[in-house]
Design a protein that fits this description.
This is ABC transporter ATP-binding protein. By secondary structure, the chain is of the alpha+beta class. It is built from 10 helices and 19 strands. It starts with a strand and ends in a 10-residue tail after the last strand. Bound molecules: adenosine-5'-triphosphate.
Length: 365
C-alpha cells in the first residue's frame, strides 16, 4: 500500500497568487485523509496533483517508492501509470457505455476472465444499489445515480489508493449517509489509502482518520478529527469546525465580556497583553441562572436569552452578552424563556485562547 508524500508543493496557475502554497503533507498507508476547507482553498488542486491531472509548479510528490512529480528533476508520471482509483465531481463516465460496461471497464483492462468480471460487476452494482440500471446509459441517469456508477467503477478494481473529490455531493442525505458508511467499510475491508476532498466538516469528521484543513492554498493543520476539533492551532481552524460555530470574545474591545475574559486569563497566561481573543464552543457552555458564587475553574459570561431555537435533538440558545450574540447548545431548556437573565458557564479546560496573530496559546488550568 502506498504512502503519499507531498514536499513543499506549489501550484501556480499563472496568476499572482499560488493556488497551493508550500504544501508538506504525508498520507500514510491506510489513512483516510480528508482535505477540508472552504471553496477555493486548493483542495481539488491538491488531489488533482496527486492524481497527475495537474503538474506541480515546484516541490515533489512521491507515491510509495516512486517519485511521480518533481519539476526540478524533470520527473512526471502520467495518471494512468500512477495506479490510483479516482472519482471526481464530474464523474467522467463513458457516455457510450452502459452502466454495467462502465463498471466492467477497469476489470477488462486488467484482463480478468468474463465469469469473474460478471460476478464482480454484479456484486459491486448490487452493493451500490445500481444493479437495476445496469443496461442504461449515463445520460439516462440522475446525477446521484451517475455518482454511484463512478464509485462502483472505481471500487470494482479494488484500488489501493483512492482519490475522491466530493464524490457524494449529488446524493440526497439518506443515500449520502449510506454511501459514507459504505466508504468507511470499504476503507477498512480493502486496507485502502483514501484521499477525500470535502468542504463538509461533518463528512470529514465522520469519515476521516486524519483531516487536513486548508485555507487560501495554505495547509493550516493536520490531525485526527478530534485533535482538530479540540486543539485547533489557530482561529481559522477553530471557527471553521463546529455548528453553531465557536463563540469568540475579542480582548481588544472595552466590553464586559472582555473584562470577564481578562479576569479568567489572569494567572493562566504569561502575557495578557499578547492575547487577541478567547473562544468557547456552544456545546461547552451551559446556560444557568445567575449565581454570585462561582468556582475559579469556570469561565462565566453574564447575558440575557434572546431566542430558543430547536435543532431536533437539542436547542440552540441565542443570548446577548453586552452587544454580542453568544450561542450555547442545550439538551434541555427547563423553564428558560426569552428575556431571562442568565449566566453562560464553561469549564476552564474548554476555553481556547488565541494570540494577536490568531495562533493558539497554551493555558495553565
Ligand atoms: N484551471 C485553473 N486555472 C486557473 N485557476 C484555477 C484553476 N483551477 C483552480 N484554480 C484556482 O485555484 C484556487 C484553488 O482552487 P481549487 O479548485 O483547488 O479549490 P477547492 O478548495 O477545491 O474549491 P471548491 O471546493 O470550490 O472546489 C482557486 O482560487 C481557483 O480559482
Amino acid at each position: 500500500m502506498p504512502t503519499i508524500r507531498l514536499k513543499n508543493v506549489v501550484k501556480n496557475y499563472g496568476g499572482d497568487t499560488n493556488a497551493v502554497e508550500n504544501l508538506d503533507l504525508t498520507i500514510n498507508d491506510g489513512d483516510f485523509m480528508c482535505l477540508l476547507g472552504p471553496s477555493g482553498c486548493g483542495k481539488t488542486t491538491t488531489v488533482r496533483m496527486i492524481a497527475g491531472l495537474e503538474n506541480i509548479t515546484a516541490g515533489s510528490i512521491q507515491i510509495g517508492d516512486r517519485m511521480v512529480d518533481e519539476p526540478n528533476a524533470q520527473t512526471y508520471v502520467t495518471p494512468e501509470q500512477r495506479d490510483v482509483g479516482m472519482v471526481f465531481q464530474n464523474y467522467a463516465l463513458w457516455p457510450h457505455l452502459s452502466v454495467a460496461d462502465n463498471v466492467d471497464y477497469g476489470l477488462k483492462l486488467r484482463k480478468m476472465s468474463k465469469t469473474d468480471r460478471d460476478a464482480r460487476v454484479g456484486e459491486i452494482t448490487g452493493k451500490l444499489s445500481i444493479a437495476k440500471y445496469r443496461d442504461r446509459y449515463p445520460s439516462q441517469l440522475s446525477g446521484g445515480q451517475q455518482q454511484r456508477v463512478a464509485l462502483a467503477r472505481m471500487l470494482a478494481v479494488n484500488p489501493k489508493l483512492m482519490l475522491l473529490d466530493e464524490p457524494l455531493s449529488n446524493l440526497d442525505s439518506r443515500l449520502r449517509l449510506e454511501m459514507r458508511a459504505e466508504l468507511k467499510r470499504i476503507h477498512a475491508e480493502f486496507d485502502a489509502t483514501v484521499v477525500f476532498v470535502t468542504h463538509d466538516q461533518w463528512e470529514a469528521m465522520t469519515l476521516a482518520t486524519h483531516v487536513a484543513v486548508m485555507f487560501e492554498g495554505v495547509l493550516q493543520q493536520v490531525g485526527s478529527p478530534m485533535d482538530i476539533y479540540d486543539r485547533p492551532v489557530n482561529r481559522f481552524v477553530a471557527s471553521f469546525l463546529g455548528v453553531p460555530p465557536m463563540n469568540f470574545v475579542e480582548m481588544g474591545e472595552k466590553s464586559p465580556q472582555a473584562a470577564s475574559a481578562a479576569e479568567f486569563l489572569a494567572g493562566r497566561v504569561e502575557d495578557i497583553e499578547g492575547i487577541g481573543s478567547i473562544g468557547i464552543r456552544p456545546e461547552a457552555l451551559t446556560v444557568e441562572r445567575p449565581n454570585p458564587v462561582r468556582s475559579s475553574g469556570q469561565f462565566v459570561l453574564a447575558g440575557r436569552v434572546e431566542s430558543l431555537m430547536p435543532t431536533g435533538g437539542s436547542w440552540t440558545v441565542e443570548t446577548a452578552v453586552g452587544s454580542q450574540r453568544v450561542y450555547a447548545t442545550a439538551l434541555q431548556l427547563g423553564d428558560l424563556q426569552p428575556g431571562d437573565r442568565i449566566e453562560l458557564v464553561a469549564p476552564a479546560a474548554s476555553v481556547h485562547v488565541f494570540d494577536l496573530n490568531d495562533q493558539r496559546v497554551r493555558v495553565r488550568q
